[in-house]
Design brief:
Elements lengths: L2 H6 L9 H10 L7 E4 L14 E6 L12 E5 L3 H11 L4 E6 L8 E8 L3 E8 L3 H5 L2 E5 L4 H9 L17 H18 L3 E12 L2 E4 L3 E4 L1
Antiparallel strand pairs: 1-4, 2-3, 2-4, 5-6, 5-8, 6-7, 8-9, 8-10
Helix pairs in contact: 5-6
């Protein structure tokens, strides 16, 4: 799927929701959790998913879901009850049900934005709660080579965790490749790109996974 086809296929023109953003990620070999979109008129099937689940409101007008109770973690056999509650809280919105990804180690954030003077820029850093706590982030103009992405990651204060610190098995090379992929995505979107955010990006079962994804178009 090309970025043009993706843009033209958005449910709300110019306003992708998380499900649609993650569908775009997949075309750039960016891993995301296994999931299912559940629209207001549909029932959750879950035939391809394993418990526990994460249930999220999936609406392009709601960018900060956690702040308003739009994310439920570690959902088990009470999935239908949780979906009913979420639909009551967010009537008319789609829901996204995903497998809850197990992981250890720190979280990362990868993002991109448009600098008024220089154009699209990539950002990578310590993610999750560490984003605001340490502000450990680095920037480069997009697109980017893998060699430059490696240098970018090694400049982070938390870089040691990517190089075997205290037995950490987090791999630097595939994380650098993910950063390169984000740069390619941003470059392909061209003039309609405004902002992108993956937070957190975690290491699970030998691969990096973007647990959350958001994109804003012009």
């Amino acid at each position: 799927m090309s970025t043009k086809a993706w843009v033209e296929g958005l449910n709300i023109p110019g306003k992708p929701d998380e499900w649609e953003v993650k569908e775009l990620f997949k075309t750039y070999n960016i891993n995301t959790p296994n999931g299912e979109i559940v629209r207001p008129e549909e029932d959750f099937t879950g035939t391809q998913l394993e418990k526990p689940y994460v249930v999220k409101v999936c609406d392009p007008e709601i960018l900060h879901k956690t702040d308003i109770g739009g994310v439920k973690l570690n959902v088990q056999d009470n999935i239908k009850e949780i979906i009913t509650q979420m639909r009551s809280t967010f009537p008319g919105s789609n829901l996204l049900v995903e497998e809850m990804v197990p992981y250890s180690g720190i979280e990362f954030i990868i993002g991109a934005l448009v600098d008024q003077d220089f154009g699209p820029a990539l950002m990578v850093g310590a993610g999750g709660i560490l984003t605001e706590l340490y502000k450990d982030v680095k920037f480069r103009l997009a697109p980017i080579t893998k060699a430059e992405a490696v240098r970018m990651l090694k400049e982070l204060t938390v870089a040691d965790i990517l190089q075997g610190y205290r037995g950490s098995n987090m791999e630097l090379s595939p994380l650098a490749e993910l950063v390169v992929s984000v740069g390619e995505l941003v470059n392909d979107l061209g003039d309609i790109f405004n902002q992108l955010d993956m937070n957190p990006v975690v290491y699970s079962n030998g691969k990096w996974i973007a647990l959350d994804g958001m994109a804003i178009l012009k």
